[in-house]
Structures are given as structure tokens and as C-alpha cells.
Design brief:
- The chain has about 375 residues and is an alpha/beta fold.
- It has three domains: about 80 residues, DNA polymerase, domain 1 (Orthogonal Bundle), CATH 1.10.150.20; about 180 residues, Rossmann fold (3-Layer(aba) Sandwich), CATH 3.40.50; about 55 residues, Arc Repressor Mutant, subunit A, CATH 1.10.10.10.
- The chain has 17 helices and twelve strands.
- The strands form two sheets. A nine-stranded mixed sheet has the order 1-2-6-5-4-3-7-8-9, with helices on both faces. A three-stranded antiparallel sheet has the order 10-12-11.
- Helix 1 packs across helix 6, helix 8 crosses helix 9 and helix 16 crosses helix 17.
- It starts with 7 loop residues before the first helix and ends with a strand.
- About 0% of the residues have low confidence.
Length: about 375
């Protein structure tokens, strides 16, 4: 079937252009023949011997190859120095091979060996509340302290916060894109992508280079987010949230799903509460609930009044920090309890905010992130 000599990578690109095959069938063919090139070299009779590949399905491999697409993908791969990881590569994560319709290959940037480490997915709404921000940062901090890699989708809101919190804690994180690896979406996360790669994490996509972030790509990529993970944690999601799609993928893949409860009158919590009420997700309040369910050992005491992982604080910063909790507190109350002038407290709070320890709420209110 080959009209020219193709490398193994080019052969995968060639298979991906054949309409009607899809990732699941491509993976099956490659597994059966031992390489993508051997699939393209096989004759129709050999292919028909594989269960599920009757004549109509087998004949899909007779389609002419899109040589222009193959050449362009190779050109872009070399231009950006991205990595190509196929399903037969020893580094390809076994946990991802176990899902329905695993990607036959992925494009990667960064440390792809991190894909083999124990991971959990943290996802949620793009329009998160201050409560959602605080919970995300605390849960992620504790999971990173337990040695887990954080997987998410680089979307605005909870996804971005999860990646950032993992990096701030010195951990590793994996971003799964709903576009080509040469496109950063949302564009404001370009620096975050660079930071993920710099800190030995990875950014991956199954989509061809040059693919734009179209809406239908994101539900499809969600199966990879859950597929890479031992469990998926949902933090704030309304009933139309894509996070519920990720949760369903996780359930279909026989993975654990956890949901963080929120305010009963918040639209942002309706999806998470529905998951809990319908027994699709287990209610969790902190990382201990998650780690216990996964039979993993926590390396930290998550209920310490002052976490041991805090960066070094000046005595005045620590005094201000100790006045804060997970609930908003007005700057005047903080000033009164510390006996510091309001202007000084504002400066100390700004310093704590820059260190990722405090978040400011509208109305000059402040609360802990961790």
C-alpha cells in the first residue's frame, strides 16, 4: 500500500489521515502488526484476519495517503523540537493504554517520563469563586506533598490554578491540550506552559500540529486527562461544565471520581453536588479523604495550623498570616488583631499574596490560599 518509504513516525501520521479508522482501531492495528509501518505494508487479506476488520473496515486502509499532511507534520515537529510518543514506546504510560480509544500517539513538550508517575486530575469551572480558588490551591498543595503529579487541561479557572499551585509547591504537572501543541490556549497561559516544562512537567496533545482550539476537541481530550490519572477531582462545576464529561470518562474507565462540596445556593456547585447525590463521585473535604481512598500515604499533616511547607516569612508577615483563615477577613479586622497600622498590614498582605499564600477578595477582604 505504500507508495514511498515512510519512517515509523510518518507511518503513524499516515494512519491518522485515513478516514473512518479512529484512535481505537489504529491502536489495535499497530498492536497486532507490531508497528505502524507494518500496518501500511499489510495486504487486505492479512488485515481481514483481525477481529472487527471485515472487508469494508479493512478496505479503509486502501485510501490514498495524505503526503502533504505527513510532510507538514514532520516539518513542524522538527521546527518546534517537540517529542513524538507512540503507543509502543516504553515511555508511553500503561495507565493510558487501558482506556477505551487510547490515542495511538501523542505529541509532547517537556519531560514525558512524568506520564508514568502516579497522577490525579484536578478540573473544574472556568469561572471559579474565591472559595474554589482557595480549595484548589490547598488540595493541590497537599496532593503534591504526597508525591502525586497533577493533571489538568490548562483551561482558565480551576485548571490554571491547579497547574500553578502544583508548580508553586515544587511539584510536577501535566497539561493536556484541546489544540495542537504549537498553539497555546488560552493565550495568556504561554508563560505557564513554559514554567510547566521548565519544572520537569509535560504539555501533551493527541491533535495534529496546527490544530486550532475548536469546541469539539475539548470533550475528546478529557478522556486523556482522566485516562492518565488514578482519580479525577472536580472542584466547582455547573450542570453544563465540561468537568462533568471528564468525570463520566473517569467512571467509564473504572477510575475514582471525587467532588468537593460547595455552597448549596451556588450555580458553580450544582454539578459537583449532582455527582455526589447520584453516587457518581465521593464527597471529599481534604486530601486525606482522597489519599485514603487511593491507599496512598500522605507525607504531610494537612491539618497543621501553620503548614510546614510555607516559604520563609518575616515575623510580621507570619503574625498577619496567622490571623487569616479560609474565610474572608476585612483588612481593618486584621489591623486591629495585629495592632499594626492599616498601611503596614496592606504591605504585608501584598507580600503574602505575591508568595501565593493569600488571596484578596473584593471589598478589601483577605483569606488564606493554603
Amino acid at each position: 500500500m505504500l507508495t514511498k518509504t515512510l519512517s515509523e513516525t510518518e507511518s503513524y501520521f499516515a494512519l491518522s489521515t485515513l478516514k473512518g479508522l479512529g484512535p481505537s482501531r489504529i491502536s489495535s492495528l499497530v498492536k497486532h502488526f507490531g508497528s505502524a509501518r507494518k500496518v501500511l505494508e499489510a495486504n487486505l487479506e492479512e488485515i481481514q484476519q483481525i477481529p472487527g476488520f471485515e472487508y469494508k473496515m479493512a478496505s479503509l486502509l486502501l485510501q490514498p495517503l495524505n503526503e502533504e499532511f505527513i510532510s507538514k507534520q514532520m516539518e513542524l515537529l522538527q521546527k518546534f523540537q517537540f517529542k513524538f510518543l507512540d503507543c509502543l514506546d516504553p515511555i508511553f504510560p500503561n495507565i493510558l493504554k487501558q482506556i477505551y480509544a487510547p490515542p495511538p500517539f501523542i505529541y509532547g513538550h517537556g519531560n514525558l517520563a512524568v506520564l508514568q508517575q502516579k497522577s490525579v486530575a484536578v478540573v473544574g469551572t472556568r469561572n471559579c469563586s474565591e472559595y474554589g480558588k482557595s480549595v484548589t490551591q490547598r488540595i493541590v498543595r497537599e496532593l503534591v506533598e504526597a508525591g502525586l503529579v497533577i493533571v489538568s487541561g490548562l483551561a482558565r479557572g480551576i485548571d490554571t490554578l491547579a497547574h500553578s499551585a502544583a508548580l508553586r509547591q515544587g511539584g510536577k504537572t501535566v497539561a493536556v491540550l484541546g489544540c495542537g501543541l504549537d498553539t497555546t490556549y488560552p493565550p495568556e497561559n504561554r508563560e505557564l506552559v513554559n514554567a510547566i516544562v521548565k519544572q520537569n512537567g509535560a504539555v501533551i496533545s493527541e491533535l495534529p500540529l496546527g490544530t486550532l482550539p475548536e469546541a469539539h476537541h475539548f470533550p475528546e481530550r478529557n478522556r486523556i486527562i482522566s485516562g492518565l490519572s488514578l482519580a479525577t477531582i472536580i472542584i466547582e462545576a455547573d450542570m453544563k461544565s465540561g468537568s462533568l464529561i471528564t468525570a463520566q470518562y473517569a467512571l467509564d474507565q473504572n477510575r475514582e471520581v471525587f467532588a468537593i462540596p460547595g455552597r448549596i445556593d451556588s450555580e458553580k456547585s450544582q454539578g459537583t453536588h449532582w455527582l455526589i447525590k447520584t453516587n457518581r463521585a465521593k464527597l471529599v473535604q481534604n486530601s486525606v479523604d482522597i489519599l485514603t481512598e487511593l491507599n496512598l500515604h500522605s507525607k504531610s499533616q494537612v491539618l497543621d495550623p501553620l503548614p510546614r511547607t510555607l516559604p520563609a516569612l518575616e515575623s510580621q508577615e507570619e503574625k498577619v498570616y496567622r490571623q487569616l483563615t479560609g474565610e474572608p477577613k476585612h483588612i481593618d479586622q486584621i489591623a486591629e488583631s495585629t495592632a499594626f497600622p492599616t498601611s503596614q498590614v496592606l504591605g504585608l498582605l501584598l507580600s503574602l499574596e505575591l508568595k501565593g499564600l493569600v488571596v484578596q477578595i473584593p471589598g478589601k477582604n483577605f483569606q488564606r490560599c493554603i
